[in-house]
Amino acid sequence: MRASSVEEAGALLARSDSARRRSASPVRSASPMPGTLRRQSSSFREDVGRAASETYLVSRLTFTLLQFLGIGYRWMSQLLALTIYAILLMPGFIQVGYYYFFSSQVRRSIVYGDQPRNRLDLYIPEDNGRPCPVVAFVTGGAWIIGYKAWGALLGRRLAERGIIVACIDYRNFPQGTIGDMVSDASQGISFVCNNIAGYGGDPNQIYLMGQSAGAHIAACALMEQAVKESGGHPVSWSVTQIKAYFGLSGGYNIHSLVDHFHERGLYRSLFLSIMEGEESLSRYSPEIVAKTSSAETIGLLPLIVLMHGTEDYSIPSSASQSFVDVLQQAGAQAKLLLYEGKTHTDIFLQDPLRGGRDPLVEDVLSIIHADDAIALQKVALAPTPRRLVFEWQLKLARQISPF
């Protein structure tokens, strides 16, 4: 069932992309990007200095966050579980960290805007003799602990298979609220759309992806851009530049998730502060925005592919099903891929650490390379990723996981 859905999604992408580009209006004005067209990755020494300043900032913001959290059993137990979870998977994280800091294929902390967190990392394939497809990725982290390096494992896996990955950082709460996060993500997407050719990327093959909170933020940015563009407002990037959106383990109707998050330790008062109050929940619920949008807005949207584990307790898979239903009813091209027995982080973290087949990466590549038989052949011949942690660590981490 899932394999046929992937094939259908690839066919939908091929059919809908040309029609969507013909009907869409061109970009009306482009905001100047900070710095030169092509920035070089900062040196390791500069990274250390930036890390020190960011550590100070994070420490200060942590105290502010604790004032919101107070003393609560749920979030404290979740924090303890997260700590044990990280320790169990640490051998894999160390190997990924070494790749992140020392691989020549990783360009770290490229500036895309004026805010302190306006940075992105690029993962460049070794074989980039011709322009490569590009995935602009927005990481998760409960809107509180997101960081661009969380996408290193995905970036590595896709770069090994000929895809450039741009992991976009953004302000977390309490440094920023949801409006700031969406603004940062949109500015990062704009940088990718307007500058990726200078890094060997194909500007005609740009895909948008987000995981968990990042899936929500990226979907908000996509819907907001479509509304602006269909209304004739000036934009710095066009929705028609995005060939497909991949939403992994995301929530798209925030109204329906407030109580669920409260029960899991993301307390109502804190969550509403992140979302800029109850009155803003509809604005930052892509599902509600899609339901109330014009046909012109919906017509600009790329293929939407939502991916979710059936045993996801952090954000139930029904959240993706509901969004797909609304999109299809509105006339958008949308597909849902369900992964049986998988949790919130299995398909994004544990499965890649396990090595071998990676269902998520395979599904993404089958859609990106739907019309490129040569690329699909190269993917099929690529070496199988090796295991980074033992199976017993993965099983124990799954049992203790706060996700």
From TrEMBL:
Protein name (Swiss-Prot/TrEMBL): protein-S-isoprenylcysteine alpha-carbonyl methylesterase
InterPro entries per the UniProt record, alphabetical: AB_hydrolase_fold (IPR029058), BD-FAE-like_dom (IPR049492), GDXG_lipolytic_enzyme (IPR050300)
GO molecular function, one term: hydrolase activity
Spans through the membrane: 79-101
Keyword Hydrolase attributed: yes
Topology with respect to the bilayer: Multi-pass membrane protein
Its EC number(s): 3.1.1.n2
Keywords, comma-separated and alphabetical: Endoplasmic reticulum, Golgi apparatus, Hydrolase, Membrane, Transmembrane, Transmembrane helix
Residues annotated as domain BD-FAE-like: 120-325
Ribosomal protein found in the keyword field: no
